[in-house]
Amino acid sequence: MDYVPLPKTGRLWKGKVDFFRPFKGGAAAGDSGDHITPLYDPQLHRQHDDEPNLKNLNVALAALIDIFPDIEPEVFREMLLSVSEESRVEIVTEQLLKRDAKWIRGRYRAPDATRQEKLATPTPSASSGLAVEEAFRSESYKKAVKQVCYQEFRSLSHSSIRAVLAEHNHSYTLSRPVLLQLTTKSWRFTLSNFLTRRSTSGPAAEHPYIVRHSGQCVDNPTPAVKRTGNADLDHEIWMLLVQPESHRQQQEQLKADRSLANQLAESEAEEAGALFDCECCYSSVNFEQMAFCDVDLHQLCHDCVRRTITEALYGQGWARTADLDKNALRCFAMEDCQGCIPRASTHLALSRNEDGKAAWEEFQARLTNDALIKSGIRLQRCPFCTYAEADEIPTLTLRDWRNFWAQVARNSPPLVQFTFVLLLVCMTLFTAPLLILAMTTWVLVHFYPPAGSILDESWTRVYKKRQGPKFKCGNPHCLKTSCVRCSALWRDPHTCFETEKTSLRTAIESSATAAVKRTCPRCMLSFVKSSGCNKLVCNCGYTMCYICRQEVTSREGYAHFCQHFRPNGGRCSECERCDLYGDEDEEAAIREAVGVAERAWRDKEHGQVDAQTTELMVEALVGGSSIKQIATQDRWPKPLESAVQENDPEDLLENLRLLSLALEQLDHDKERWWYSPEKKEQRRRLEGEGQDGKIVELQKINNAATAMVEGMQAKLGLFVKWSLGMNGGIWQLEQGGKVKV
To answer: Which UniProt keywords apply (predicted)?
Structure first.
């Protein structure tokens, strides 16, 4: 008996509409696609939804960064938003030149130490060095970043997340590490992590916008990014979290496939008896693992090729391994052979290893370098990589007078020809001495060698001066601009032989300021706390906690902070709330940031500064018990020492003012001595005589004087810090949490 569907008990359908209602509902549910998660495809063309005024703002911001490269982009963003659209670049430039202290407030950025490692690719709205993290953000991007951070960091309050985003220009790449650090300090994260046993093995673990789909590989699913509503943020999350893991999976898959292919090829060759013996290690390998020289066809395995190149690069076998004439690897068989292994075979042997690409590039770079040295060509090298260009001076040649006469006779109108002949006849008396001088010079140059060498040196000096000292590297992996004279990284405005202490102090001060700086998420005002409680009230009325950056509402008030009595101080054992008067151990945070900045500066600049100078800079920033000990050294005047010991603010400030005026006068005298007419004439005379060594000695004397003045200014900054607070150029906080300048 066939099964007949019976109607449900209850209301029966009464018409056509009731009969087709289930089908319409199913179709609507199928078309809605609620169960389908839209994923981001990085291969599709990414369109930037810039707002109407956003592109113009980014173009103006890029221009200002090129004009003032030593100022933080945050200053330009604040100023551009506060001026009208007409001539905004000119207005901001004029304000910075006239009243720079009012707008900058100590926000100088260090030279390219760690900034380039953090920043991403340039923004499409500007063709200069403006990075995405420094540019103006669209409202859709800000909204999408907030939603992603709200879902990813559920243990943090929304006000804390908004404060961190405001500090980092709403950049997800820069804000995520800070939010992760804040999350680990939250008791809610510890409790939820213990109960749910979350996996924190990788950066993309448990991310709400990272999904894994099997695709073609079921055992190893590939991560993908769910769309957030903004294409720029989708691409940023993909580059930050998905792309490294996808690349690692691809490399592991390629390695496994290559290993399996080699095993199958070796087994098939062994069964067929088609193995070849290497004439270096005498091992039997298949044909795919062999390389042959181009003379006697010696058989060499890929393992021996890789070991030989490694020994040549990092050992003592370069002279007998590399053939500079053929720019290839010599045959290293047991028999004496004058052949070489083709470049394609060498590249194939190295490409089958994990570090083969780097070894191949280094091998080619060293071959090219030795070939250039052997050629004897005058080179201009990049101080940061192996790139070099031929530094050839064009030959000084005179134009042929017959070509000039043919140009006048053929292509000029008759009136011009008649005028030229008339002037030539009339100027005979004046041109005769010039012709005699030119003929005498020509005879001396061709028949008297010293005169020719003097003319060549003069022409070389003129050509070098017209060419300029800036050198742009053509290596696509470097692309740095350096100075030909001092071999330093070019930064506008550039000064040759710039003292290393200046760049180190700038890097340390910038890192220390960023470690303790807070930003109001409502009005984007940056500040640090010098004293008072941790309940901070901004000028705009926004109240936040200095420790966790969370918003403190009027309803919550001081209940946000710990209310338990602790007779011995220290951390509270009864709750996890923030301390009202406790600090976040700013000294440790500053020292850690300064250590990272110093190491990055040494790696990038290859600078050498004594430990005493570095310790003095650190103590000037973090303070401590050793400040008075450093401040009361014997080299300081007696009145200043007594003012420090007696803790008299008025006398101390008066001494600081007098010392500042003395340092300014000393720096003015040094500059007047260096740019005096006598010293300019001396440097010009030495440059004309080609005595570069004496010019360098004069420059060293000037650098020593500059270092002395800067060292005294560092001492002055130490006293200013000790008496006026952490950083006098940034907004300070007084008792009660009110903001003041």
So the answer is: Membrane, Metal-binding, Repeat, Transferase, Transmembrane, Transmembrane helix, Ubl conjugation pathway, Zinc, Zinc-finger
For residue 145, the model assigns a pLDDT of: 92
For the record, the structure tokens of 429 come out as 């008396």
CB 125 within 8 A of CB 59: yes
Query: Would you say 517 and 528 are in contact if contact means Cβ atoms under 8 Å apart?
Result: yes
Q: What is the DSSP letter of 497?
A: T
Place of tokens 């300048």: 741
Residue 190 has pLDDT above 60, yes or no: no
Residue 589 dihedral angles phi and psi, to the nearest 5°: -65, -40
**CA distance linking residue 712 with residue 670, whole number of Å:** 14
Strand, helix or coil for residue 481: strand
What are the pLDDT digits (tens) for 312-363? 888 877 878 888 888 889 998 877 888 899 989 898 988 887 778 888 988 9
Residues 6+ apart with CB under 8 A from 445: 451, 452, 455
Residue 668, both tokens: 């003015």
Longest dimension (CA), the chain: 132
Taking the C-alpha atoms of residue 45 and residue 47, their distance in angstroms, rounded to an integer, is 6
% residues pLDDT > 70 (the chain): 65
Higher pLDDT, 366 or 434: 366
Q: Which amino acid is at 696?
A: V
Q: Would you give the end-to-end CA distance of the chain in angstroms?
A: 93
Which residues, in sequence order, are CB contacts of 209 under 8 Å at separation 6+?
A: 148, 151, 152, 225, 226, 228, 237
Rounded-to-10 torsion of CA 519, 520, 521, 526:
-40
CA distance 140 to 126: 20
C-alpha radius of gyration, the chain, whole number: 36
Q: Tokens in use for 381?
A: 């090298």
Report how far residue 478's alpha carbon sits from residue 386's, in angstroms, rounded to the nearest whole number.
10
User: What pLDDT shows up at residue 270?
Assistant: 85
Query: Strand locations in 85-172, DSSP E?
Result: none
Residues 362 and 314 sit within 8 Å (Cβ to Cβ):
no
Q: Which of 496, 469, 501 is nearest to 700 (CA)?
A: 496
- Give the amino acid at 67: I
Cross-strand bridge partners of residue 299: 292
Evaluate if pTM is beyond 0.70: no
Which residues does residue 578 pair with via DSSP β-bridges, in sequence order? 561
Backbone angles phi, psi at 287, to 5 degrees: -70, -35
| Kind of pairing between the strands at 276-277 and 299-301 | unpaired
| The length of the chain, given as a count of residues | 741
User: How far apart (Å, rounded) are the C-alpha atoms in residues 378 and 391?
Assistant: 5
DSSP annotation string for 422-437? HHHHHTHHHHHHHHHH
Q: Write down the pLDDT at residue 457.
A: 78
Reference 304, options 325, 317, 260; nearest CA is: 317
Indicate whether 117 pLDDT > 80: no
Tokens 């030279």: give the residue. 111
In this structure, are residues 204 and 223 in contact, taking their beta carbons and an 8 Å threshold? yes
Residue entry with tokens 């500040």: 527
Contact 643, 740 (CB under 8 A): no
pLDDT tens digits, one per residue of 364-402: 888 888 888 788 788 888 888 888 888 877 776 666 666
- Are residues 728 and 105 in contact, defined by beta-carbon separation less than 8 angstroms? no
User: What is the DSSP-derived secondary structure letter of residue 410?
Assistant: H
CA separation for the pair 396, 367 (Å, rounded) = 33
> Under a CB-based contact definition with an 8 Å cutoff, are residues 211 and 222 in contact?
no
Would you call 211 exposed, middle or buried from its count of C-beta atoms within 10 A (0-12, 13-18, 19+)?
Answer: middle
